[in-house]
Predict the 3D structure of the following.
Amino acid sequence: MSHVARGTGRGGFITGFLILPLALYLTFVIWPYIQTFGYSFTNWSGQSPTFQFVGLDNYAALMKDEVFRGALWHNLLLLVFVPVITILLALFFAFMVNAGGRSGAGGVRGVRGSGLYKIVYFFPQVLSLAILAVLFGAVYRSDAGGLLNGFLTKLGVVDPAHPVEWLNEPNLVLWCLLMVVVWHGVGFYLVLFSAAMQSVPRDIYEAALLDGAGRAQTFFKVTLPLLWDSVQTAAVYLGIAAMDMFVLVSTMTSGQFGGGPDHHSEVMATVLMRNFLYFGKSGYACAMGVVMLVLTMILSIVTLRATRRERIEF
Amino acid sequence: MTTVTKAPGEAAAERPGGGRRAKEGGKGPSDGTVLNVFSHGFLAVWAILIVLPLIWLALGSFKTDSQIGGSALSWPSHWHFDAFSRAWDKGIGDYFAHTLIVLVFSVPLTMLLGSMAAYVLARYPFPGNRVVYYFFVSGAMFPVFLALVPLFFMVKRLDMLNTYQGLILVYVAYSMPFTVFFMHSFFRTLPTAVHEAAVIDGASDTRIFFQVMLPMAKPGLISVGIFNVLGQWNQYILPSVLMQPQSGSDPERYMLTQGLIQLQYQMGYETDLPVLFAGVTIAMIPMLVVYLSFQRQIQAGLTSATLK
């Protein structure tokens, strides 16, 4: 390469271009991450500059912490249901949009107005979680003023004297939050899967059609295997979102940093923030951060491994 | 109310009716029609589920507080915009301005620094290149929570809590992994011939970057730019920890997301929900306008950014 030969002065150029991004990244990202590991072995309160090394005490306490264990369980539930529901719905709608139309001379095609559907479905993705929190806080209101209760009362499903307290019902609250994530995500993954479906060459579908494959068969034997890479990516991203959940839980549910009623919607992130900002147990909060990191890494690796298939080139 | 709010879904659902006379294909016409009606039904239901709550919320800004609490399906009795002006006075306008101030600096800075690092790492072999690259990229794997506690004290030590410059620098730093990752793969796909021609013409490395490579990387910059604008505009966790007034005399510099949540708490006490709904509507309108004007680029940008 010609530019390697020019040699002199290049070191200066490389350093000059890298120094600022690296400095920022080290100061605000890497160094805090490293510190988290360090602090997780101390009883640091965050307020006082002094603290003692306590070894694995924080981690031992975490194992016994009922609230944290409950939160971990909720995260695991979300980890299973958020990706599964979102991906299934997105695949279903993507298939409807791209191949749900009547079959014409050119084979299977998409429904009319598929562009419009994509525009509508995708819109929640550009809204902030804060907007979603307020919006669904109102939808799930515990009296007749809530959209959901209002509708169900009108339909006669819900007794107007006893509206459902969606976000205050221990058995419902987590599922209500889950539906918000699904509502938010389906459109994005629909567009993602659609793009992947459209990149599949037409003649593969035509060949399947000629061989007498029905729509269902085409979907499972042709489309899905070719989409596998995108499904895998979607699973990892949705899994990471399910591990987080802080904004929705902390703003929509009762309690300091959310988690109510009685810790039934608690997730690890809300327990962490409460311990850090409310109880002043910074060392303990750091230990939770480390646990979350380890789980996220395991999750990514397991998802990528478990969903590994032979890659199909086309 | 229902007649109006249903309109977008119905408009979509009615479309196939017009095309029903269209000639059926040679193969299994009945099968196609059944599926067509079926798929339109499902698609329309989901479209209504998306649109209905949003319109319902916007309508709420025209209702009175007692109307909102009384029945969800009530129709606004008057069409005054005073809830909007009250929401603006409650700080929505300021929160908008704060968020804009931060993003005007943080997004260009993210793009500039991210592209610089990505470019050097993609095009200049030097010892340790791979190490630095993976160092940058690995940051995308970690949840922000992990760094939150020490990050707070780091920013505090730099005396930058509740300052714009503090939040700008933090936003830039946390956008680095993805920006570097994406632009790195983009710079790799650019042809080397142009670069070599510029070298022969005697252009310096810095000049080649700014005048040759950066303009060529425009499509990539747009994709990752959209990603960063949305990500930073919608960020909630970082400002909610870093942008709290530090003393009585320290002015409030809430971001829009923070401000909305703040408004939610406040309006819960003051029982003035129309203001909250108006605030959310105000926050949604620019997103809607930007989205409808650039929806193709936004959809392509966000999805390609995810798939890289």
